[in-house]
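Cross-posted from the bioinformatics board.
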Amino acid sequence: LADAPSTPSAVAGTRRALLAGAGLGAIALAIADDAAAQGGDTEILNFALTLEYLTAAFYTEAAQGGALSGETAEFARVVAGHERAHVDALRNALGGKATAAPRFDFGGATDSMARFLRTAVKLEDLSVFAYKGQAPLVRSDAVLAAALGIHAVEARHAAWIREIAGLPPAPRAYDRALDRTAVVDMVVATGFLAPTPTTTSGQPPLFTG
Amino acid sequence: MAREVRVEVLDPGATTAAAQDDGESRQRFLGRVIVAGGALTAGGVLVAGLPRLAESAPPSREQDVHILNFAATLEYLQAAFFTEAEVRGGLSGPTLEFARVVGAHERAHGGLFEHALGRRIRGKPRFDFGDSTADVERFQAAAMLLEDLAVGAYDGQGPNLTREALTVAARIVSVEARHAAWIRTIIGRPPAPRPFDPPQSRQEVLQAVDQTGFLVG
């Protein structure tokens, strides 16, 4: 096996550092090199960042409220930490190009166990489908490696909350991929995006990079 | 629909020449193993036919074939493991349900790669799972290891694939992650122990598979 292929340690080290969440420096470089500053990987990462803002805010609010108990409370606490870590990593990677956090209004979705479970299942499945839709569009390998590492964790969350909610954790042999438009439509349909007073166009300034 | 795309991507015209090329590489590889006096280990089975493949080589359709064969072997391993566990009768309750559902998923994944690779797929290895498919606790431990390993393997190879082939693999990796979280909930382990799932290199995957002793040739 001496001649078996192996990952050069430098590459492995980079990926490991990236996915350990120790700052996404290589991604930041990739973004700096992104010739089309308004498109490409920057736009994809800002899209992902907005989804992470949403889930981080949702679970943080739910974990701080008193409506959850048992394993559901544990889920909210752990997953809130993960989503906040994703936000930090993506913001670090994007640097000055990171989009600002929107304002959210979760209504009563964090106020009861039943509504929280329904919403969390929807948000986690949506995150899985969203990352899957974007991954093949990513240009930078460093960005892709990080996105895959986050993607898999979202799928773990999805299975976990489904198990708690009494739903099949892995309902199909293949997960769907959703494009950005479909994801945005589904996020808008949640009603969680609060009106943003800073825009004049009538469009929420989300997903624009 | 996606299946046609895969075949188009991964079954290039020169299949005969390519098959011969693979055959030669495999012979050279086997020759080296014999010269070295080593047994044909799990790693040998997994990497047979791609002795010179550098994992960091830029993505190419040729490299896709090797990586998807690597992935197919992992799927075969999982499919055989869960299928045997389901029929052997040692499991019950949620663990049996897990084996039943996940076995079907892994069989579908193996079939997907067969379809995608066409004549360029390598044969199924032989497996020996010992008591791990009969004893509940050993099954659960091995299932968690195999599912976490699959996630790391796909994440590790993702950037080495062409983006077309990645579209195929990406449909599977999240399902493997769901399986990993599911079996972890069943045995009371944290379903999502880290905010970022670590990728695993081919070498790390080979070592982990070797250590299970499940792959016998």
